[in-house]
Amino acid sequence: MSSRTTATGGTSSSNRRAPPTTTPANVASGRATPATQPTRRPRSSSNAAASSSSVAVNGPKPLFGVEIEIFVKLRPELERAIYTRRQRGEQLDEEYWRNWNFALSNEKGNQPLKDKQRECVGQAIEALIEGALGPNHHWKCEPDASLKEWALTEPPEPRKWWGIEIISPPMSAARQWRQEIHEVFAAVAEEFELWTSTFCACHVHVSPGPLKSSKYNFDQLVQIACASHFWEEALKTILPEERKINRYAQPNATVFANAEYNTVSRYTWAPVFQAVKSAAGTAQKFAARYPSEDRTKYAYAMFACLMAGAKVTDPDPSDTAERYLSSNFLPLPELGTVELRRQAGVASAHSTIQRALLALTLHVSALQYDFVAAASRRDHPTQAELKTELSLAIKRLPASCRGDRFLKCAATPTCPPPPAGGTSNPYEIWHPDPSNERPVIPTRYPAPSYPVVVREVVEVLMREGKQLVLRWVTVGRTRVRRVCRQLGIK
Question: Which segments of the protein form a coiled coil according to its record (predicted)?
Fold first, then answer.
């Protein structure tokens, strides 16, 4: 699994807010308010809208990038067409089609041949993305053998799926990034079927922005590290079951400030937050021995290693640092990003956008939250507190980040598990209608994703011998019917 990517940035110290003052009334909530507050009249709706717009314009504009682990399979009609042309001896312009091994299975063994096949897959997908976005798009597609294709059993023709990682370039939250993600998925789905499972994840790298050259300062890093511990229990409640505890995205408290974290109910959050601040101070003192032009990089490296469980006294802290954490600080020295690894895999643009929005709102919340006030708490924040906090955070992001209910992707106690072997997210392919428990198409899918979604729904239901029941929606209705006709379903 990769930890490269995709966004670099930071916020200048001149833009930071002054530390908020607190009163006993707001200590419990953890959110700062002025020590004295004049009585304010309710604002008119027009004034409130203007204020919200002003916050978005002047608020944070982080950069981010996504790493999408996913299984893909060549569409049968395209596979037959290419195979037939090769059998006839026709010349194929694309080298990846000339090298495509139609007889190769993804089962264990044949590693050199499978590596070459994954390269062909990556080249084909990059060509599709270039056709959609034009040259210099900077999206990459790389093989990912860690996805265990050989273990797949549920998708159609399980031995024909290949694990890859689609990596975005740095994208600004202030630009039309959602449309770009839609275009990428629509392009890939033209020639490949998509599948996600518990093997997959969607990692999101975030930096403060607005420029690639911007850097995190240590006050911001302390805030993010405190947030990674503070919101852990609440975050679990909005994640699918297999992402609550996952060996590739362990809670940060597993390796840093574990004793302090486990005794919050006795000693409050103050020891946890103090441990983070001490680590930041240690990292900066460590870097002071190096030339001034290298100090930031070495300070980043040491802080990242300390957050990952390494010790200053280790001969090489990077060797003992744990990279498989929920919030991974190890990309800081090279990429200038913090990576959120906790979220489940995706098979649509809509779910990818949800993952990005969750990471962005956690980032914005962390930079603004008053952990000085929260330090006196002896409990863990609840899911309701987290959702309230994230709903406030998204209002501070640019307007290009709004319009998707990103928390709907969360697993909830009332939502049954997805079809066996399918996506780990119950909303990824289909979800039951609570009124009659009949399979329905999710109503929030964008039009470009409908053919893929419907095909996957139909295949799942046909394998289980269930009658297909579709909820027709206005957007994408023509595409839904076309796919059903192609599959011979009325």
Answer: none
- Residue where a domain terminates, one of 175, 207, 239: 207
Ranges of H-type helices in 153-209: 177-189
Burial of 124 (0-12, 13-18, 19+ CB in 10 A): buried
- Cβ burial of 228 (10 Å; 0-12, 13-18, 19+) is buried
Nearest Cα residue to 204 out of 352, 306, 325, 308? 352
Q: Is 253 exposed, middle or buried (0-12, 13-18, 19+ CB in 10 A)?
A: buried
Two structure tokens written together for 349: 């643009």
Q: Please check whether residue 185 lies inside any domain of the structure.
A: yes
The total number of structural domains in the chain stands at 2
Residue 162 lies in a domain: yes
What does the block give as tokens for 279? Answer: 């680590």
- Of the listed ranges 148-152, 219-223, 261-265, the one predicted with least confidence: 148-152
E-strand ranges in 156-263 read 162-167, 171-172, 192-195, 202-207
Residue labelled with tokens 């911007």: 214
Please state, rounded to an integer, the average pLDDT across all residues of the chain.
79
What is d(CA 33, CA 37) in angstroms, rounded to the nearest whole number?
A: 8
Confidence of residue 7 (pLDDT cuts 50, 70, 90): low
Residue with tokens 């003192």: 285
Of 163, 182, 207, the residue that ends a domain is 207
Assigned domain for 151 exists: yes
User: Is 438 contained in some domain?
Assistant: yes
One-letter amino acid at 97 equals: W
Structural domain harbouring 91:
63-207
User: What is the dihedral sign for C-alpha 466, 467, 473, 476?
Assistant: positive
Q: What is the number of residues in the chain?
A: 490
Q: What is the mean pLDDT of residues 251-268?
A: 97
Structural contact between residues 359 and 64, judged by C-beta atoms closer than 8 angstroms? yes
pLDDT of residue 454: 53
Percent helix, strand, coil in the chain, to 5, is 45, 10, 45
Q: Residues 370, 376, 377, CA angle at the centre, nearest 5°?
A: 90
How many secondary structure helices (H) and strands (E) does the chain include? 20, 10
Q: Is the pLDDT of residue 296 over 60?
A: yes
